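Quick note —
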Amino acid sequence: MLRHKEFLPADLACQLSRAMLTSQRPTALHTHDFPELIWVQNGRIREYGPKGHTDHKEGTLLFVQPTHAHALQGKGEDAMVVSIAFDPKVIEAIGQQYPQVADRFFWGNSERPETYTRDMQQMADLNRAAVRLERRNGTALDATAFLLPLLSELIDETVSLAAGAPRWLADACAAARNPDVFRDGAAGFVRVTGRAHAHVSRTARQFLGQSPSEYVNGIRMDYAGRQLIGSTDSLAEIAADCGIPNLSHFHKLFLAHHGMTPAQFRKTRQRNTVQPVL
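Predicted structure written out below.
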């Protein structure tokens, strides 16, 4: 078993390393007493566990818990991973402070590491964050500052669907949170699935209980609510930013979703915290 105290001094809370993986099959699985975040930086890898193996492509993140016996193998040329080992006390503290991570990531009870996929832009952001982490002192604050934005992003992207729901639907639901997608309404939702509109509509109604248009409009109205509270943009600007330039239609959707008009919502929720009138 690898132990964090063997390579992490008392004043360090994390250690980042990069490794090129050989194509030689591992002779044994290994364990350690610390949580480890791994991502496939380049190429493909094969992850071995007690019940078999799984192949992962570039952009895959693995949250490895201390209970996960595992081993890695490179598949093809230039298979490279980035690994960050964390002091267990840091991970324990995050879990205690943020209940949103319960049963997820490092805090679950899964038999194998949880995996997530990042696109090219997200990988670029992740690598910039990793470089910032390397340039700092590796304290608990540094480790937490690296992890929290990533966890928040992954939680925001994750959509929980009923058993049997296709992965492409969950991916589309996550993508629909992007303004570049929801501004196009149902057409944007269908576009990211790469499937026929009729098939997407049937599947959405089966697993979401809504049409693509209804699902996207809910996301639009949540976004509009945040803009009404956090900005001074006019209602027309916010409606257009949601992809709904018709103000009458926007009012109708907002009232149905929030139970009050946009003006009432802004008056009730918005507070001037920069120059408050006392």
